[in-house]
Specification:
Radius of gyration: 30 Å
CATH class of the largest domain: Mainly Beta
CATH architecture of the largest domain: Beta Barrel
CATH superfamily of the largest domain: Nucleic acid-binding proteins
Number of strands: 45
Mean pLDDT: 84
Shape: globular
Helix content: under 10%
CATH topology of the largest domain: OB fold (Dihydrolipoamide Acetyltransferase, E2P)
Strand content: 35-45%
Number of domains: 6
Distance between the termini: 56 Å
Number of helices: 7
Largest sheet: 5 strands, mixed, barrel
Strand order of the largest sheet: 4-5-6-8-7
Length: 728
């Protein structure tokens, strides 16, 4: 649809129309950018431009004005879906150009978290798709921009450089105007109190949204705009990065805390959005933002009140069980506070199963003051009991705790002789959390580290999996070989299970039962058994383990930073080695790529998203003859896709890959017919080595059958396909 007179069209890009805007000839002559302009021909009625048809209606007047004077926000935001599909590039064709745009300020410049900068969303007052833009001043020490004076409802004209964030190629990014500060180009105020465009009503399906994935071909037109979603149901809350996910039949969308007023509330609540348990039906108004650390598009409400509760199920809190140590002679009482603020609690129940059998349900009884209880019957000694709670209100809205009962449940063991370290460490779930978290327990074990090795210590009661635990005690004078009884509260400290003080007024209790006992021999394992992403890494947490005949595979896994860590590999996959104890590590660069490690003993540990080995001291590392060439520098990072491990596998496997530089990477699994089975990753990642796990399910969460599968990595022009075998 070519309409040379469409300057007055409020929606020139809508309904499949080609992007159009009238330009004068001098606009073309004074534009040095290019970006797909088909050429300069003053006699031509139309010039084909990537994203639009531009009509020339006057003779040239060189030097009259800049290109941006004739543009609106939609002109610089618009990009054809087919062009976005190429390498997932949603960059504006005018990226890098200085343009002048007009828009209405939507909120205050200090309301969002952009560090020491100022930023604001603006919109074309006429609304419509492609009409939102983010404006930012990177150097706030530069005076004279007048940006600090803008208020919601101001209509402003901004001359700035059009850029993208993140800046990496082939990355889903946010288009932004970066104010000119050298020399300073001030914001122009055109009007005040301008009505702000109303939010656009969308569904997650309009964005191709499914929680962690959005389709840039659909999201780009709504970028930086005020939008609204209605009748979404919360499916997850308190995810990493303070994320909450809600959806409907069309898909799901992630809610983020980009605005300070929301961050303050959510962060104070431990990263969980307060008042929105799973099952809550909500309406949310906020700004669509790309360029996030999650690598997807999120909706960002301005305040917590922009998330409205349409219908809320009962809230279940303060779940407890008694006694802490279950025995075969008595049942276990489960209690919780259950409240419904809108209607009334109609039912509450406990679902439980024994030794992974079928679930049974027991109704909970109200005891007043919102307290509900139920008794799980006594079970045989040694039984594993898993349970969850479910409550519904009089309108039929229901919720469970844990929210995702397929991923996690409460659980305990029946132990007539008391608990062991195994009972505290074991978990059947991928989150690694103990079934005794926040409960005070007593266990016994042999101290495996001296206080000269660390400022705290670990104990172990055997050499089987799940037999070691960290004791956060730096006051008791214990020695390696002491047998101790420890009474403490089980806690997950950054995903590491440990025993800590039951309360600030009730310190951890340690009794030395005997001294000079032999230490449990370190468990001989492969590096691949212990590495990040391995299905077996968690079971060895807190235990003394050993690897042999390995080499230094990555001297500086956090390059360009150096935190003293390095990685070793015996051919089964690399694992990190940390210098947390009385071990020198690699701060002085004494370990280089290819160095031989004949033996390394250490405690299996987890920190900063990685499993790692903690040698107690330098004696725990026995080096062999180096295979590295003297004076040779560590090879630079590369693009690489490794063979999955283990292979064949059942039920899960891990895939390692390397990125030479920061950028977008995708990892996709296909079946023998070439059909896509699962998108494992489609995100922006830093340079370095990465590991991701596949649990043998497709994008719908369904288990896939036995067979040969292919996994393909794509990143910055690099592409490789490997084969793997799943045996059910």
């Amino acid at each position: 649809m070519v309409d040379a007179e469409n300057d007055g069209d409020a929606f020139p890009h809508d309904d499949g129309k080609t992007a159009q805007r009238r330009l004068e000839v001098e606009d073309i002559e004074n534009w040095s950018g290019g970006n797909g302009l088909g050429g300069h021909n003053e006699t031509s009625e139309n010039l084909a431009w990537k994203g639009g048809i531009w009509s020339i209606n006057a003779t040239a007047t060189p030097g009259a004005r800049a290109l941006g004077d004739s543009l609106n926000i939609a002109d610089v935001q618009f990009k054809r879906a087919a062009d976005i599909a190429v390498n997932l590039s949603d960059d504006s064709p005018l990226r890098g150009q200085t343009v002048t745009l007009t828009g209405v300020v939507m909120h205050g410049i200090r309301e969002i978290f952009v560090g020491a900068r100022w930023g604001v969303f603006v919109q074309d007052e006429r609304g419509g798709p492609w009409s939102g833009m983010f404006v930012i001043q990177n150097d706030t020490s530069a005076g004279g921009t007048q940006f600090s004076a803008v208020q919601p409802g101001d209509k402003i004209r901004v001359t700035a450089v059009l850029n993208e964030f993140p800046t990496a190629a082939n990355t889903v990014s946010i288009t932004q105007l970066e104010l000119l500060t050298n020399p300073v180009t001030p914001v122009e105020f055109l009007d005040f109190g301008t009505p702000r465009p109303a939010p656009v009503l969308l569904k997650p399906g309009d964005l191709g949204a499914n929680g962690a994935v959005t389709d840039p071909q659909l999201t780009e037109r709504w970028e930086s705009m005020l939008v609204r979603f209605e009748n979404l149901t919360v499916t997850a809350n308190g995810l990493p990065g303070n994320i909450m996910v809600a959806g409907d039949a069309t898909g799901s969308i992630a809610l983020d805390d980009y605005f300070d007023a929301v961050f303050d509330v959510v962060n104070a609540n431990g990263g969980s959005w307060p008042g929105f348990p799973a099952g809550t039906r909500i309406n949310v108004t906020g700004y669509l933002r790309a360029g996030t650390t999650q690598g997807t598009v999120t909706i960002n409400p301005r305040t917590i009140n922009d998330v409205e509760v349409a219908s809320s199920p009962p809230a279940i809190t303060n779940v407890n069980r008694s006694p802490v140590v279950a025995t075969s002679t008595a049942g276990v009482t489960v209690s919780a506070n259950i409240v419904d603020t809108q209607t009334a609690v109609a039912s509450a129940e406990v679902g439980y199963r024994v030794n992974r059998g079928a679930f049974q349900t027991i109704s909970m009884t109200s005891g007043g003051a919102n307290l509900y209880t139920a008794v799980i019957p006594a079970q045989a000694n040694g039984a594993l009991v898993e349970f969850y709670l479910k409550a519904a209100d009089t309108e039929g809205a229901s919720t469970t705790i844990p929210a995702d009962t397929a991923a996690s449940k409460f659980f305990y063991f029946v132990r007539d002789a008391g608990l062991t370290i195994y009972d505290l460490q074991y978990t059947p779930y991928a989150d690694g959390n103990s079934g005794y978290t926040n409960l005070t327990v007593t266990v016994q074990g042999i101290v495996t580290t001296d206080t000269t090795d660390f400022s705290y210590y670990w104990i172990q009661d055997g050499t089987g999996p799940w037999s070691g635990i960290w004791v956060n005690d730096n006051t008791t004078n214990v020695k390696a070989g002491d047998r101790v009884a420890v009474t403490g509260r089980v806690e997950e400290n950054f995903n590491v299970t440990r025993l800590a003080n039951p309360s600030s007024a009730n310190p951890l209790s340690v009794t030395i039962l005997s001294r000079g006992n032999p230490l449990p021999p370190p468990v001989l394992l492969r590096t691949g058994d212990l590495r990040t992403g391995s299905a077996t890494a968690e079971r060895w947490e807190g235990m003394l383990v050993q690897v042999r005949n390995a080499v230094v595979s990555t001297p500086f896994p956090d390059a360009p930073s150096n935190f003293g860590e390095f990685a070793i590999d015996d051919g089964s996959g690399e694992v990190r080695v940390d210098d947390l104890g009385d071990f020198d590590g690699n701060l002085d660069s004494i370990y280089v790529k290819g160095d031989s490690i004949r033996s390394l003993i250490g405690i299996q540990y987890f920190s900063f998203d990685n499993y790692k080995l903690l040698p107690r001291n330098n004696r725990d590392v026995v080096r062999g003859p180096s295979t590295a060439v003297a004076g040779r520098e560590t090879p630079p990072l590369r693009y690489a896709l490794e063979q999955n491990y283990p292979n064949p596998f059942n039920p899960g496997t891990t895939i390692s890959f390397e990125l030479r530089q920061h950028g977008r990477v995708s990892l996709t699994i296909y079946n023998m017919l070439g059909q896509k089975v699962k998108t494992l990753m489609a995100a922006v990642k830093p340079a370095g080595r990465h590991v991701i796990a596949w649990n043998g399910t497709d994008d719908r969460g369904q288990a896939v059958p036995t067979g040969v599968y292919f996994y393909r990595m794509q990143a910055a022009g690099f592409e490789k396909v490997n084969k793997m075998l799943l045996l059910r």
